[in-house]
Amino acid sequence: MLLARLRVRWCAGSEEALENAVRIDDLYELACWLAGASVYIGNDSGITHLAAAAGAPVAALFGPTDPAIWAPRGPRFASLRPLEPASRSGN
Hints:
5 strands, 27% helix
C-alpha cells in the first residue's frame, strides 16, 4: 500500500479540527516545514505558493481558476485541472 511506504503529514491552523495534524501558527515556521517536504499536494491557495517558494516540489489542484495565470512558477510545479465538461446543448 502506498501510504504504508510514504510518510504523509497533514498541516492545519490552530482553529481547524483535523486529527493528528501538525499545528503551525507562523508563516515562517510553515515555510521551513514545507521546505523539507518530499512533495506538497494542495489546492490553488497561498500556502501552495509558499510551498513552491520554499523549494518543495508542488502538485496543485485547480478548479475554475486558470493555472496559466494563477499557478506558482518554476520547474518543480505541476497543476491538475478537471477536463472541460461536455457541452449540454449538443453542439
